[in-house]
Amino acid sequence: MLQKHNAEAHMIQYRNGLHCTARILKTEGIKGLYRGATPSFVGIAVEGSLFFGIYSQTKVYLQGGVQSGEPRPQVIIPSAAFSGAIISFVLGPTDLIKCRMQIQGTDSLVPKSSRYSSPLDCALKTVKAEGVKGIFRGGCATLLRESIGNVVFFSVYEYVRYHMHSNIKANSSNHRNLVDIGVGIASGGLGGVAFWLTVLPLDVAKTLIQTNPDKNCPRNPFGVLSSGWIEGVLYSLGATVSRAFPANAATIVAWELALKMLGIKRD
User: Fold this and answer.
1) pLDDT tens profile 62-91
2) Where are the chain's structural domains?
3) Structure pTM?
4) How far apart are CA 166 and CA 168, in angstroms?
5) SS3 20
6) CA-to-CA distance for 73 and 81, rounded, in angstroms?
7) Looking at the domain 2-262, which fold is it?
8) Which terminus of the chain has a smaller tally of CB atoms within 10 A, N or C?
9) What angle (nearest 5°) sits at the alpha carbon of residue 26, between those of residues 23 and 30?
């Protein structure tokens, strides 16, 4: 919301994330905060399953099936980039539906007759108006965001995790569990912050491309970034980074806990 409305003319201007939240609550109520949540939940569920599975299996393949304790860039970088590229094909359509559902609630330029009644309605109307390729609008920006961002994310995560485990000794299994959770929170949270600090401009470009009412609008993210994007980055930076740490910390802790419960050994 901050990316779209503060990066284009004739839109509602939000001073910060708190101002945006307060205005949504005032005009739409609590349900306004969850507008577009359904495609996000679906996208995240599919993304998480594919993402970590592809990353882990690609790492195993590149390591020749041999586990190595110390992180290796020649393994992490291609594994992260490949998994990010694959999931971008899932995230592209779900992000488009989410963004379009979110902006219509406060966008005075969208007449009520043209608003979407549900995520499915949004998807069907998009395909009808723009064809199947319309649902993948912003795909290039999404692919770049996920490939580049996840290289940064996993590089930070793997190195922070390795060095923290190397320097923290646990004297019992209970302490080990607490250490694992603490390391997961720190490494996942820092990885998430690094991800968004790196690719936030690409995310702003993606949002502007996906929500542009002109179906023939420019699709090159770098062309979009050449003008009018800095406001979207600056206004959404605080909200994005403050969300990144807890969200990614929780994701990593859940992933590592699932691996432990399934008896899958980590490096």
Assistant:
1) 988 666 678 999 999 999 999 999 999 988
2) 2-262
3) 0.79
4) 6
5) helix
6) 12
7) Mitochondrial carrier fold (1.50.40)
8) C
9) 100
